[in-house]
Amino acid sequence: MCVRKDNLKSVDYKKSYDLNIQPLERLIIVNNSLAIKETVCCHTMIKKVVIGGSQSNSFDDKNILIFGMENSNKSMFINQIFYFLYQWINKDVRNFFIDKIYGVNKCKEICIYEFNNTNLPYKITLIDCPEYKINHDSSLQFTSKKLYKDFLRKYVTSKGYFVLSSVVIAVENEDDLVNDKFQRQIKKLTYLFGKPNNYYIFEECLNGKLKWYEEGNNFDVSNNISEYFKKLESNYKVLLRLP
Question: Which domain of life is it from (predicted)?
C-alpha cells in the first residue's frame, strides 16, 4: 500500500523533544507527498531516517546491510532502490532524498533508512555503513569491527537477535574485491554472518550496479532492482547469533 499525498498533513516540522525523555525527532513533508522523519534506533541509538510514514512490523520485513569501499558509487544503488520502492513519487522528491537526506549522512556514520508504505507490502530497512578507505589508518576509519561494536552487538544485546536478508558489498571495480585490506574486512563479515552456509545473502555491487552471475561463472552488472527484491523474497533470513 502506498501513502498518497492526500493522506498526509501539510506540515514542515515537528518540534524537538527533550533527549532525556525521548529521542530527537524531525518530521519533513516533501512537496506534500512524502513524510521523512529523522530519529534514532531504539536498540542502538544510531541515527535512523524513516521514509513514508509509519507501518506495522511483519515477519516479511527485509534488512539490507551495505558495506562498501571509498568511491564505490553506492549512492546510485540506494537511489535505484528508492526509485523502485516509490515509483509514484516525482523526480523532485527523489532528488531531495538523495541530495538532502542521504547526501548529508553518507560517509560519516552508520545510518539506518527505513522505507515504509512502498510498492512492496513490507518494510525495507537499509543499514548503510560509512565507506572504507584503503589508504587510511584502520584505527581512524570505519571497519567491520566498528560495525560489530557500534551496531550489531548493541542491537542483538537489546533485542536478542538480528534478522538479515542481504549484505551488499559495494566497490568501484573488480580489483577492489581482491584488495588485501578490504578482503580482511569482508572475511570478518563472512565470519559474523556465516558465509559458507549463507552465501546467497551476499551481493557484490560494482560502481553502483549489482553483479549478476550467469552460466559458466560469467557475470554481468545491472541495476535490476526488481530482480534483486524477487531474490530477497526467496532468501532465507539469517538469525544472527554473535560469536
Answer: Eukaryota
Cα separations (Å) of 95 from 10, 64, 102, 211, 240?
20, 22, 10, 25, 34
Nearest CA to 171 out of 198, 210, 136, 135 is that of: 210
From the list 121, 106, 122, 147, the residue with the least C-alpha distance to 63 is 122
Q: Are strands 111-115 and 124-128 parallel, antiparallel or unpaired?
A: antiparallel
Q: Residue 39, Cα to own-chain centre: how many angstroms?
A: 16
Torsion of CA 117, 122, 127, 128, to 10 degrees: -50
- Domain limits of the chain? 26-241
Looking at residue 10, its amino acid is: S
Answer yes or no: is pLDDT of 65 > 60. Answer: yes
Tell me whether residue 99 is exposed, middle or buried, using C-beta atoms within 10 angstroms of its C-beta: 0 to 12, 13 to 18, 19 or more. Answer: exposed
Using DSSP, state whether 61 is helix, strand or coil.
Answer: coil
* Residue 18: burial class (beta carbons within 10 Å; 0-12, 13-18, 19+): exposed
Closest of 165, 57, 69, 52 to residue 113, by C-alpha: 52
Q: What's the grid cell of residue 108?
A: 560519516
Spatial separation of the C-alpha atoms in residues 3 and 172, rounded to whole Å:
35
Question: How far, in Å, CA of 171 to CA of 157, rounded?
Answer: 30
Asked if the model's pLDDT at residue 115 lies above 90, the reply is yes
What does pTM read for this prediction?
0.82
Which tops the pLDDT comparison, 1 or 222?
Answer: 222
Query: Which of 160, 154, 156, 195 has its CA nearest to residue 67?
Result: 195
Q: What is the CATH T-level fold of the domain 26-241, as seen in this structure?
A: Rossmann fold (3.40.50)
Model confidence band, residue 128 (pLDDT cutoffs 50, 70, 90): very high
